[in-house]
Amino acid sequence: MTEPQFERQVDRSHMQVSDEVAIQIENMNKWYGQFHVLRDIDLTVQRGERIVIAGPSGSGKSTLIRCINRLEEHQAGKIIVDGIELTNDLKNIDKVRREVGMVFQHFNLFPHLTILENLTLAPIWVRKTPKKEAEATAMHYLEKVKIPEQADKYPGQLSGGQQQRVAIARSLCMKPRIMLFDEPTSALDPEMIKEVLDTMIELAEEGMTMLCVTHEMGFAQAVANRVIFMADGQIVEQNNPHDFFNNPKSERTQQFLSQILGH
Amino acid sequence: MSDTQAHSVAYVRDTMLPQQPAPAGQSGAVQWLRENLFSGWLNTLLTLLGVALIYTLVMHFLPWFLHGVWDANSIKECRTIITDRYGEGATGACWAVIRERWHQFIFGFYPPELYWRPILTFLLLFVAVGPLLFTWVPRVLAWFTPVYPFLAVWLLWGGSGWTPLMIFAGFVLGAAILLVLSPRLGSIMAFSIGAFVAILYFLFVVGPLIDGLQAILPWGLESVDSAKFGGFLLAITLGVGGIMMSLPLGIVLALGRQSDMPLVKGFSVVFIEFIRGVPLITLLFVASLLLNYFLPPGTNFDIILRVMILVTFFAAAYIAEVIRGGLAALPRGQYEAADALGLDYWKAQRLIILPQALKISIPGIVSTFIGMFKDTTLVVFVGLFDPLKGIPDFIRADFNWKGIYWEPFIFVGAIFFILNFAMSRYSMSLERRLQRDNH
């Protein structure tokens, strides 16, 4: 099997996995009505890990990461994020959401606000940061994603890749300790995927804890320290990327890899 | 495939083409006429019929307008003048009724020496709504907006100067309790306590307080009874009051209908469906007759206020449904992004959801406003003097103007048209402005 290659040289000096637990999921189950979407999920994420979650569509991978910031409710088991257990308690949910950033497939920028306003909204209203300071932070992250000149435009005026980079910057402005990516490049044209992946790699290089649902196996290869393969609402296999790609154990994984790698 | 063929199929452009203007000569008046009015025998026939119809209508009504008489003191005098000038059988408008009675169309039976009060109220209305409607109005004027309703009511109805101050104080009291308690008890609890204290204040404290203050330091304006209101003063008072109150109520109902809380949702649904399902006139009769049975005897609950409340309910039910459409049009991702950033329900609604939903709903909201403003003329059925029927009927009761019909309708209709057309144009310009904002 050909190993997917990523052209960019990744600097691994700051990618350190600590012993501290960032996310702990124990025996978690979720149903949509009668449909059992997530079954007995057990997952521990250490601070500094970069985890890529792969799997066929409908396997529950998006649902899993959406449970981590309670966009979806789980019905059984435990999810503990940053030491806070997710229950119906709205205060806890808000606390978790403040520490967890999320990037969506369709960007979900706020179309009625400028780029700068998109970035400063949550810091000002949720973190109560003074406006000037929030704007300075926003410009800092816009420079990081390399589009500071777009600050006063509206999302509709930007390309898909630029919008997704803005969405990443918007999450970063809340200074999250964990980042969730839900198929961040699936809605993008091929030439825009790279610019978004570059941004994500830079984030990984700085030691951000990341959970990433994606089909970009090159990215997984280059950045992830662990790849999780899901099917039918279960974690079927997890391993380091090298072994995952070169020596997949389960038949489902082998099948999946041969399909998406295309030969 | 031969070599030569392969060579002719492969192709590399060596120069890129510059942009060129579109071909000229596709416009012009004659061309336009031919394409739009005379493009076939059917269209030509329809064009000719249309022109004939317009010609007949104009020839019928134009003399009536042109023969209009302004300087007469009765309809009989009007007719004599028209016959003298244009011969036996000539028709003409008797605008003299408007010249003589315009003040009743505008102010009803408001005391003429106090006309400055409604006029000032009307002018201040623009100061109050300016900061809400236009971006070029200085922001500092926004402090006047919340003060205006109290000032307007006082200017129109008069009475002790302490009344608007103390009623305003009640709202300030409620808002202060909300602000102080909400960080500690949560916004719902704080709102309930604030509203409860404010209601207690309005029911038991404010009356004696005003009387007491008035006894110590009397000041105020001459009182004008609601029965003296009429014409456009009445229509605009009801219309502006209804618009100002129905928009917030409509938003709350629309959000309530989407709520997860069964009680809130149930109340909103029942309210909206009941109010929308009943004719406005029924509600007006409720306002004028039924409420009197339910209220304790001796309470003097002003008829205009009662009607205004029910007109507000009526418009709010429609607006709630219009806004619900706007809310439904937003992609789920907007709610999810707001949630993921840690915004709570009210902040997400205020900053993300409502600005977008209201923008989508502008045409529907303004339609509802226009409809409601015109519906204020229905108050004639509960004995108020609306400008369309109440006032003209009163004028016709005068022997001098008995039998005058078209002129008051045209005059009142024209004023309604001007006001509603202005609202409509404003809403279109607002849509354009917001459109430009998000490209």
Provide structural commentary.
The complex is a heterodimer of chains A (263) and B (439). Chain A has helices at residues 61-68, 90-99, 115-125, 131-144, 160-172, 190-205, 217-223, 241-246, 251-261; strands at 21-32, 35-46, 50-54, 76-81, 84-85, 100-103, 178-182, 209-213, 226-231, 234-239. In chain A, strand 4 and strand 5 form a beta hairpin. In chain A, the strands form 2 sheets. Chain A has a 6-stranded mixed β-sheet, sandwiched between helices. Chain A has a 4-stranded antiparallel β-sheet with strand order 2-1-4-5, covered by helices on one side. Chain A is built from 9 helices and 10 strands. Chain A starts with 20 loop residues before the first strand and ends with a helix. In chain A, helix 4 packs across helix 5 (160-172) and helix 5 packs parallel to helix 6 (190-205). With 263 residues, chain A is an alpha/beta fold. Chain B is mainly α. Chain B has 3 domains: 23-63, no CATH class; 159-221, no CATH class; 228-439, MetI-like fold (Orthogonal Bundle), CATH 1.10.3720. Chain B contains 17 helices and 2 strands. Chain B has helices spanning 3-9, 29-36, 41-66, 75-86, 96-107, 116-133, 144-157, 162-185, 187-216, 231-257, 262-277, 280-294, 303-329, 332-340, 345-375, 390-396, 406-437, and strands at 159-160, 220-221. A two-stranded antiparallel ribbon of chain B has the order 1-2. The longest helix of chain B has 32 residues, at 406-437. The radius of gyration of chain B is 30 Å and the shape is flat. At the A-B interface, helix 2, strand 6 and helix 3 of A face helix 14 and helix 15 of B.
